[in-house]
């Protein structure tokens, strides 16, 4: 077996499959594009689903890749086991209706065992297979595998709901008896016993059926085109080939661990307690790659995943004695390890470091808040005479403040308390069930549509014409091809078309079809791309249509022009965002409609009002400069050398269109555009908002809609001017400022009057001093307009030595407000109010010297005041 670096293993995999005629698909962004069923790209095949479900036909049916992926469903196991990771690389080879079982097994065996390639010892390899899949069993024997190394496993069948499915055969490497202390042997594999001896290195899925949840597996129908979908974990392959005890002792992780050693002053011991090193090494990889791909820490979705990973890594850093921010310092090491195939981490190093450091600093403050919360919980337990910290409280510390259970347990036990582990597990289970319930359903691939996949007729989109004559090549009605149709709805393919198929955020053209008499025979309501790329016109049929006949295709030019204004403005907006906000503000989606444009982009905070003003001004400046919009067709390498920016989620072929607006904006784009920026007329941002963690959205309008938006604002200002009796609109700001000053003076005067009234009332309240168990106290109901007045009373009480304790209650509207203030250490205000508040059907809490509560039963205020003495 060859001794290879991780970079060499990855490259050898790709080189092998390239030698077998595969196209190497580059690793896709970790943030899924146009797939709401996935939070992250979580496998090698996730980005290829469009090929397997038949919605897109690939140029080459043989594909191979090395795909970065994130999975966090087993995050608690990361660091505890040898092979659990949150980010990993999946190596894959795929056949879309081309080769199948025979070649997949033959080539897989060749790659693993040939001296020219990985050179694994044949006697160390074991294969599992689906018991009904006798063909795979026979094929393994044909390539040279001993029958004793073939293990039938009932679970070896891959399916995730409706769609492509089939048996799979897995390949395992036997690491020997050193990893089998109980000498269980092959039963470990046959009985699926968790072990470190037999390591799965590859899974070959033989996708040959359309799964249907409504029928038994034996009745699944064969796929029209059978597929091969494989996955080999790079981390596992590297661990086997480098003879590492775990994945973490490979060149993918050890450099990170060595840096953590330097920062912490601790030494990594592969046979000792090294969980914290592993967690940090794993999590920083996920953070660096995910942030580099546009995801940002936040409170929901992908953002919550990243925040949780970062906080978990920071807490493990503290377990190693690291108190300062440190994770961001590991980003260059991650980038260097992966640079041969993933240069983006080093390219975006400064931005990734900035985001991680900022999040670390924020979490440091959160940890302090969590520590205060834990101290309060333990103090309350002690005061109540309890000895166990409740599981729900442990979960809150874990979920809200990022405290690992181990840390909470350690601090609680140091203070003499026990831990409610079962309660914590129950709270965790509730959260997981809520999370599962919120997941978008339907992650499986769609069913293959043989009718659409079979369309092979050529169709050309003409960018330059709004009207042209073209031959009707295909008619599809009710998912079947037909030669003619006279009513209803249909899908049509023409030899040439001026109709733009929806793509890249630009909506489809609408229009009409006319016969040779000039009569309208169909209305085009949508245009999408067929699996082989042809524009597929969805039409309402008004008169007879037949294949082979020529028709006049006429787009709605007014609609196209309005869409082009917004699309060209989107390019200017994207460039302006880069100039004003930063290069990290990359596109995360867009929509160019008739009446507006929508642009989603990655950014870690709301765009400031001044920044929005600068962006809007920059776009309009380019409109007023009347810059020609130049489009050229060239190859992808030339386009990149021109500095062309690829739009998010788009897949480009060998020939691409480059849209240049002077030197201000150069992008790869297949959409339609104006000839000159001046045709946009006017640009106005109408809204900026957050739509998810780390993702912002700008809504804007152009031309007529922009004028109308400005006119609407002008009319509103005129109304305000009339109300304020300002003779001109420009006088409104000074008039408003004057009114604000008057309001502040009145508020100040009102506050002073309230203080005087409270002082007068306090003179009577503070006269009634009572005593119980050696504690002097004042307990009174007061008449006030808001809860703030209670604090005013408390402030006045503190300034003089009236009593040891103050309890005030007030009925304000339909609510009851209660305040407890204490000057004695043995009388805890927070604990006392927790006893008193339920009397008025309320709850509350606070610090030892001051606490407040709210309630709803004003009729029990007197009972609450009477109960004070019984609790002293």
TrEMBL record:
EC class name: ligase
EC number(s) given by UniProt: 6.1.1.7
Gene Ontology MF annotations: alanine-tRNA ligase activity; aminoacyl-tRNA deacylase activity; ATP binding; catalytic activity, acting on a protein; transferase activity; tRNA binding; zinc ion binding
Pfam families for this protein: DHHA1, tRNA-synt_2c, tRNA_SAD
Catalyzed reactions: tRNA(Ala) + L-alanine + ATP = L-alanyl-tRNA(Ala) + AMP + diphosphate
One GO term of the biological process aspect: alanyl-tRNA aminoacylation
Broad class of where this protein is predominantly found: cytoplasm
Alphabetical list of InterPro entries matching this protein: aa-tRNA-synth_II/BPL/LPL, Ala-tRNA-lgiase_IIc, Ala-tRNA-ligase_IIc_anticod-bd, Ala-tRNA-synth_IIc_core, Ala-tRNA-synth_IIc_N, Ala-tRNA_ligase, Ala_tRNA_ligase_euk/bac, DHHA1_dom
Entry's family note: Belongs to the class-II aminoacyl-tRNA synthetase family.
UniProt protein name: Alanine--tRNA ligase
Annotated organism of origin: Streptococcus ferus
Taxonomic lineage of the native organism: Bacteria, Bacillati, Bacillota, Bacilli, Lactobacillales
């Amino acid at each position: 077996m060859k001794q290879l670096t991780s970079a060499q293993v990855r490259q050898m995999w790709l080189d092998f499959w390239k030698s077998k005629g595969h196209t190497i698909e580059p690793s896709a962004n970790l943030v899924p594009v146009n797939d709401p069923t996935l939070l992250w790209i979580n496998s090698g095949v996730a980005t290829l689903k469009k090929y397997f479900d038949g919605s897109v036909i690939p140029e080459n049916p043989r594909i191979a890749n090395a795909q970065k992926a994130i999975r966090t469903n087993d995050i608690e196991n990361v660091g505890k086991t040898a092979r659990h990771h949150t980010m990993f690389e999946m190596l894959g080879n795929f056949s879309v209706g081309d080769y199948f079982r025979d070649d997949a097994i033959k080539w897989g065996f060749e790659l693993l065992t040939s001296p020219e390639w990985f050179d694994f010892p044949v006697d160390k390899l074991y294969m599992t297979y689906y018991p009904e899949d006798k063909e795979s069993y026979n094929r393994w024997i044909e390539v040279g595998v001993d029958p004793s190394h073939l293990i039938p496993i009932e679970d070896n069948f891959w399916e995730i709901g409706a769609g492509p499915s089939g048996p799979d055969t897995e390949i395992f490497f036997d690491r020997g008896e050193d990893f089998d202390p109980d000498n269980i042997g092959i039963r470990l594999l046959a009985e699926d016993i968790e072990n470190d001896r037999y390591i799965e290195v590859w899974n070959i899925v033989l996708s040959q059926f359309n799964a249907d949840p409504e029928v038994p597996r034996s009745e699944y129908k064969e796929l029209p085109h059978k597929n091969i979908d494989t996955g080999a974990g790079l981390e596992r392959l590297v661990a086997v080939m480098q003879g590492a005890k775990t994945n973490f002792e490979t060149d993918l992780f050890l450099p990170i661990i060595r840096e953590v050693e330097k920062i912490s002053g601790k030494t990594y011991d592969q046979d000792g307690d090294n969980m914290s090193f592993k967690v940090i090494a794993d999590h920083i990889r996920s953070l660096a790659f995910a942030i580099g791909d546009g995801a940002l820490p936040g409170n929901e979705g992908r953002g919550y995943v990243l925040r949780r990973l970062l906080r978990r890594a920071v807490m493990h850093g503290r377990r190693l004695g690291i108190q300062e921010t440190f994770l961001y310092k590991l980003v260059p090491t991650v980038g260097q390890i992966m640079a041969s195939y993933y240069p983006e981490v080093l390219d975006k190093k400064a931005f990734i470091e900035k985001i991680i450091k900022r999040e670390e600093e924020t979490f440091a403050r959160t940890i302090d808040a969590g520590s205060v919360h834990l101290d309060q919980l333990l103090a309350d337990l002690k005061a109540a005479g309890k000895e166990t910290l409740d599981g729900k409280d442990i979960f809150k510390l874990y979920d809200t403040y990022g405290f690992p259970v181990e840390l909470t347990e350690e601090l609680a036990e140091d203070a003499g308390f026990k831990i409610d582990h079962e309660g914590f597990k129950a709270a965790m289970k509730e959260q997981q069930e809520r999370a599962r319930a919120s997941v978008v359903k339907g992650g499986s691939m769609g069913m293959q549509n043989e009718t659409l996949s079979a369309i092979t007729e050529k169709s050309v989109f003409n960018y330059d014409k709004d009207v042209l004559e073209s031959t009707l090549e295909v008619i599809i009605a009710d998912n079947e091809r037909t030669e003619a149709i006279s009513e209803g709805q249909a899908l049509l393919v023409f030899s040439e078309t001026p109709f733009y198929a929806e793509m890249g955020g630009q909506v489809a053209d609408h229009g009409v079809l006319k016969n040779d008499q000039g009569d309208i025979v169909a209305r085009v309501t949508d245009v999408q791309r067929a699996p082989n790329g042809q524009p597929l016109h969805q039409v309402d049929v008004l008169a007879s249509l037949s294949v082979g006949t020529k028709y006049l295709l006429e787009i709605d030019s007014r609609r196209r022009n309005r869409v082009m204004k917004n699309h060209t403005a989107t390019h200017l907006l994207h460039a302006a965002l880069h100039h004003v906000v930063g290069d990290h503000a990359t596109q995360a989606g867009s929509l160019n409609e008739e009446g507006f444009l929508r642009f989603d982009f990655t950014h870690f905070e709301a765009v400031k009002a001044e920044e929005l003003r600068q962006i809007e001004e920059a776009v309009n400046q380019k409109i007023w400069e009347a810059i020609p919009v130049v489009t050229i067709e060239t190859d992808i390498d030339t386009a990149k050398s021109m500095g062309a920016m690829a739009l998010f989620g788009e897949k480009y072929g060998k020939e691409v269109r480059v849209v240049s607006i002077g030197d201000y904006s150069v992008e790869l784009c297949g959409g339609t555009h104006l000839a000159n920026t001046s045709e946009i007329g006017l640009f106005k941002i109408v809204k900026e908002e957050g739509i998810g963690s780390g993702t912002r959205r700008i809504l804007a309008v152009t031309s007529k809609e922009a004028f109308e938006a400005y006119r609407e604002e002008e009319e509103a200002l005129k109304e305000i001017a009339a109300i304020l009796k300002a003779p001109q609109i420009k006088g409104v700001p000074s008039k408003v400022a004057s009114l604000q000053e008057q309001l502040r003076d009145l508020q100040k005067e009102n506050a002073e009057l309230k203080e005087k009234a409270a002082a007068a009332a306090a003179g009577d309240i503070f006269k009634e001093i009572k005593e119980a168990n050696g504690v002097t106290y004042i307990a009174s109901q007061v008449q006030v307009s808001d809860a703030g007045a209670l604090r005013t009373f408390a402030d006045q009480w503190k300034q003089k030595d009236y009593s040891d304790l103050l309890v005030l209650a007030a009925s304000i509207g339909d609510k009851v407000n209660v305040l407890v203030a204490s000057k004695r250490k043995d009388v805890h205000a927070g604990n006392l109010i927790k006893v008193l508040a339920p009397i008025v059907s309320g709850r509350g809490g606070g610090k030892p010297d001051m606490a407040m509560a709210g309630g709803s039963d004003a009729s029990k205020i007197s009972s609450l005041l009477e109960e004070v003495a019984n609790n002293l």
